[in-house]
Amino acid sequence: MTMGIGILGCDAIRNELEIVTAGDREVVYREYLEFGLHLEPEQLRKAILEKLESLPAEVDVVFLGYGHCQALKGLPEQVDVPIVMLEYEDCIAAMLTTERYHAEKRNGGITWFYPAGWAANGMPGMVRLFRLDSVEDYAPEYFLKIMFDGFSRCLFIDTGIEGIERLEGNSLEVAEALGLRHERTSGNLDALRAAWQATKELARSLENGRKA
After folding, report:
1. Domain spans in the chain, listed from the N-terminal domain onward
2. Number of Cβ atoms within 10 Å of the Cβ of 152
3. How far apart, in Å, are the Cα atoms of 152 and each of 15, 25, 36, 64, 111?
4. Is 18 helix (H, G, I), strand (E, B) or coil?
5. Is pTM, for the whole model, over 0.90?
6. Which of 29, 84, 100, 137 is the most exposed, fewest CB within 10 Å of its CB?
7. CA torsion sign, 17 to 12 to 69 to 93?
8. Which residues contact 41 (CB under 8 A, 6 or more apart)?
9. Positive or negative, the Cα torsion across 71, 76, 77, 79?
10. d(CA 208, CA 1)
11. 115-154: per-residue pLDDT in tens?
C-alpha cells in the first residue's frame, strides 16, 4: 500500500512548494497556514502542533514547509507522525542558502528580504502581515514607515515562480512606499526539492518496512 504524504506549509511559500510537489499522486493532503505566524514563534508552534494532531487518517508522512522559525527546530523528533522539514533557520535561508543569507544581512544596512511568493500580495499583504488592516485615524502605511525606520533596502528574491514581473512590481511599490532602496537577487528551490525528495524516500522506507 502506497504511503500517503501530507503537506503542511507556510502560505508565504505556497507557490514555491506547489512547484516542487506539483502532480505527485502520493500527496493526499495540502494545507497552508497564514503567513505571519512566525512573528509569534510560540503561536506558530502551537498552530502547527494542532494541525499535526488532527491530520486525516490517510496521511502517513508529512512534508513541513517551514524552516526553524525560532520555535520549530527539532520538531520532527517531538511528534509521532514522521516529518521532514526545511533544516534552515527560515525559508529565506532555504531559498538563498545560509551563507548568502548572512552575507546579504551584512550588505549595507538592515534588509527587508522579500521573496517572490511573499510579494504576491504587495502592500495589502504587508498591511495584513503586521495586523494594520483595522487601524483608524491613520493610513496603515504611516505605521509601516515607523516600523521600517532603520531599514535601508528591500531585496526582492526571484524564486522562479510565474508572473515575476508583476511580483517585482509589487516589491518596487512596497520599497517606494517605505522609502527603501530596491534591489533584486535570485534564489532557488534546491533546498525545497531536497526536503521533498527526503520526504519521498522516508515514505518509501516506511512502506517497505510495512511490507517486510
Report:
1. 5-91+189-211, 96-186
2. 14
3. 27, 45, 22, 32, 6
4. helix
5. yes
6. 137
7. positive
8. 69, 70, 71
9. positive
10. 9
11. 999 999 899 999 988 888 877 777 888 999 999 999 999 9
Mean pLDDT, the chain, integer = 94
Closest CA to 20 of 117, 121, 125: 117
* 16-42 pLDDT per residue, tens: 999 999 999 999 999 999 988 888 999
pLDDT (mean) for 171-199: 97
- φ, ψ of residue 10 in degrees (nearest 5): -85, 135
Q: Among candidates 174, 74, 201, 82, which has minimal Cα distance to 120?
A: 174
Nearest to 117 by CA among 44, 67, 77, 171: 171
Candidates 64, 48, 46, 47; CA nearest to 6 is 64
Query: Other C-beta atoms within 10 Å of 109: how many?
Result: 12
Nearest CA to 112 among 157, 75, 68, 69?
157
Pairing of β 83-85 and β 61-65: parallel
Is the backbone of residue 90 left (phi > 0), alpha (psi -120 to 50) or beta? Answer: beta
CA distances from 82 to 14, 52, 190 (A): 21, 10, 22
Please give the distance of CA 96 from its chain centroid, rounded to a whole number. 13
pLDDT bin (cut points 50, 70, 90) of residue 95 is very high
